[in-house]
Amino acid sequence: MRVVIIGAVACGTKTACRLKRLRPDAEIVLIDKDEFISYGGCGMPYYLTEDVSHIDELRRTIFYVLRDEKFFQEIKGITTLTKTLAEEIDRKKKVVKVRYLESGKMEEIPYDKLVIATGSVPKIPPIPGVNLDGVFTLSNLHDAIKIKERLVSKKVERPLVIGAGFIGLEVVEAFGESWELPVTLLEYFPQVLPRFIDPFISRIIENHLKTKGVNVVLNARIKEIVGENGKVKGVRTENGFYPADLVLLATGVKPNTELAKKAGLFVSPNTEGIVVNERMQTSDPDIYAGGDCVEIKHLITGKGVVMPMGSLANRQGRVIATNIAGGKATFKGTVGAFILKCFDMAIGGCGLSLEIALSEGFKDATYALNIQHERAHFFSTGYSYYSLVFDKRTTKVLGFQTVGPFTDGTLARVHAISSILPSTPTIEEISSLELPYSPPFNTALDPIHVTSFIAENIIYERFKPIAWDEIIERLKKKDDKMLIIDVRNPNEVKDITQKYPNWINIPYQEARRKIKDLPRDKDLVVVCSVGARAYEAARWLINEGFKNVYVALGGIILPKSWGVEF
Amino acid sequence: MRVVIIGAVACGTKTACRLKRLRPDAEIVLIDKDEFISYGGCGMPYYLTEDVSHIDELRRTIFYVLRDEKFFQEIKGITTLTKTLAEEIDRKKKVVKVRYLESGKMEEIPYDKLVIATGSVPKIPPIPGVNLDGVFTLSNLHDAIKIKERLVSKKVERPLVIGAGFIGLEVVEAFGESWELPVTLLEYFPQVLPRFIDPFISRIIENHLKTKGVNVVLNARIKEIVGENGKVKGVRTENGFYPADLVLLATGVKPNTELAKKAGLFVSPNTEGIVVNERMQTSDPDIYAGGDCVEIKHLITGKGVVMPMGSLANRQGRVIATNIAGGKATFKGTVGAFILKCFDMAIGGCGLSLEIALSEGFKDATYALNIQHERAHFFSTGYSYYSLVFDKRTTKVLGFQTVGPFTDGTLARVHAISSILPSTPTIEEISSLELPYSPPFNTALDPIHVTSFIAENIIYERFKPIAWDEIIERLKKKDDKMLIIDVRNPNEVKDITQKYPNWINIPYQEARRKIKDLPRDKDLVVVCSVGARAYEAARWLINEGFKNVYVALGGIILPKSWGVEF
């Protein structure tokens, strides 16, 4: 059996190596247009931060062998053709036409089974100046090397990143933290991590970026990347000019499917990804595809999506290898689990954000927000924020987002939720999860439990949530229909009640006795630090017959974490 | 509705508070024989380590209010009777007979619904000397206070802990690390954490304890705790005498069910726990029970177990409150998830250990072991160890164990596995889990995936595993039927091949070419650092027609982590 694999970064090399282990007799040809193959692409931002001291660290096995052409050829026994471009697939003849880029020579390579793992290409925004010297993407090791060279040779004083997605945020940290450079971040959408994270969480990240000295510019409508003598000088938006001597385009990627299209394979018009079945076969059963170039099923919406994640590419490569070797393996789809480090924060999630859930037709989608220390207070590293997005009617969980201090605590919570999310659990199933407990790691009821309890209380309408955006808006308008009942201790409240006439302090300890006399014609908004005491006081108010009782979702810690000052 | 709750630590107070929030009109009476109620019992070891500076830190809410009788009485509106012993339940009259311990006065308290949350009592070994001055258990705050007083007043020079379970290991750390005392740990079984952790993992912990200066004595058959003038002087076992001026009995707990038995409620003869249904009702539907005193269903064996864990007690309290309030909530059972810190290590797991799985009748139970850095090597904190216990015939997962550096990485993996374990996943379902990935947190294929891949390779018999115990035994016997093929780099192997004639080095890079000439009549045992290269080389050997090819499970890092020197 002769298997040709086009693309040798994540999915392609995983397929090749696993297949060789399963079927040592198989003849495998691995083709890549680049000289760098089988590298840890997700580690590139850490080459910029200098956590990775040499680019080869991203190319080595854990036992320090460089994964180059020779490694695959000699150690793995896989015919490996680097600097070789696959130009065409002739499905009738079952050959791949390749061009050896150094010699220019062409050759036809026959296959019994073919694997397309051509990855993705960066989306370049349609603006002038993208080809100026000093404008980069970070889509392969060459990019990483070039950017690092500029940093090392002190040629960068004012870096600018366009796009506040995963890569954008990781690179902003590299520039800001490791190189101590004043970095500007331009984002088209009104928030960082659009689509993945909802605004009530993303503002926490924005504020963190600002405290780290990053110039965060949202709603940035870029007109032009401005140059002088061919070199980048800055970026002009509808509202201003941002000087820069290095611009990183982190505006996303799209599937690299030219070859597949030309071969007549079915490519999704919606996502531009190659269509594959659960066994990762394309519309031609002898041709498999995996990694960033394919469309996969989103397990919450049921729709096709492109999800360019290294972890998925590796798992897909394994599935392809098993199937080519004669086994039966499937890749069912994705819940879009992600995690990233951004300065001192860990950010993670899975499933749908509230915004996407609503836009995907989940009209009863809402969310519960929990703020707490992720572990016992005597081991605490500070506040973490957890949000479960769910359908209030069916009580099904739709998504989960969390930010917190840079520990593995965030990983732990996303690991748990993303593990069960494909089975579309209800909120009750989340609150019934068995999770281990010990004070150095978490709380007796894990943050996941507490978040699901808040969701349950929303589902059963035990309290009416109110968003801080609305509270702040009504405060600004001096809306005297609203009365804020702040149940924190007097020393926590400080002078806030003097500043706002419709903000009164009734300490939690006294609230049960004192609430009876509150006005019955107002919207009573109960607030505390994180929401627990407010919820309890709200229950007392409801028991006393008060009708319009609201609990601020997240407590006052939430707007404070956005940078709001009262 | 009048609800009486006996026991006010974890389950009891959770029931009371939640019920009051759901039904503010309910009349709730909370009874406890102690003055200390509603405290974080799992935090007691950290009071001994001094992470918790004052005992009241274990009694406070997150917003610094002491959870004492007054707090429950005045703030929560719950009638709270401390220092009050529930002596008898008259189910016909529906009253609880209580004795006020200070006055000696008796009273009958009527109930509509009753909750038994009487917790557990320490198991005291049947040996002489347990009542000597200086012999303690750590079952409540009084114990913690007394032990801490001795430590603070420098009365402890040689502490000794009996029992290497969760509490035992946590307290050993407190004595050894925080107080820098030479501590002895005696354990009846031939390993630490018996039943929960299998020996190939527990030996890693034992070696860690030894490197921290702990005198670990396994297989300890204790004859007597020896005293002089009423004070403890040491512990005598069948094999020796261990001097000690403080002895902690950490020999487990048993359900406190005297009251329930006397009331004629059904108590399991096997586990001694009160029998409850999924709604946490006892054999009397008006009486609920929860926490350490009940028997719950083990979700892997289907059998009743007693699982004294604070996290379960809290969740059960919530279920009881919901049901009493008229809702429908269930507690389905447990997979026994646990986590603990022990010096610089995090230890966690869920489900069954291999030993227990075999003893519970899973005759095809076996395990896969994975050793790897839990995150990208440029963020590494060192090796972690992961073991999946599974049924080789059904491929169902039975349990999971892990030890690693003290990060939340261990929590993350147990969170993921324990979340899905109740649905009795197959190994393939574990290898298909979607888990988020980023280099600061994990590897592209998470350690969970890699462990499940090893399990798959065992299921499909892609390699024959061999345990290090057997290898070491055969090395000792100079068994020349065995030939060890060490595929590490020559600099990793050092002089080991000179020491053992049947241990040869064929570096991985050269192995494909050189293996052909190996003897065909021997048991070839392929080893490397962690097992990955050995597995691949074994596949090459099998492809060359070699029959008796074995891969050392875990690589040479495993016995080294046990303290074995080659």
TrEMBL record, chains A, B:
Keyword Oxidoreductase: yes
Species this protein is from: Thermodesulfobacterium geofontis
Cofactor(s) required for function per UniProt: FAD
InterPro entries: FAD-bd_OxRdtase, FAD/NAD-bd_sf, FAD/NAD-binding_dom, FAD/NAD-linked_Rdtase_dimer_sf, Rhodanese-like_dom, Rhodanese-like_dom_sf
Lineage: Bacteria, Pseudomonadati, Thermodesulfobacteriota, Thermodesulfobacteria, Thermodesulfobacteriales
Gene3D superfamilies, per database record: FAD/NAD(P)-binding domain, Rhodanese-like domain
Signal peptide: none
Keyword Transmembrane recorded: no
Keyword entries, A-Z: FAD, Flavoprotein, Oxidoreductase, Redox-active center
PROSITE patterns recorded: RHODANESE_3 (PS50206)
GO molecular function, one term: oxidoreductase activity
Domain Rhodanese residue range list: 478-562
Record's protein name: Pyridine nucleotide-disulfide oxidoreductase
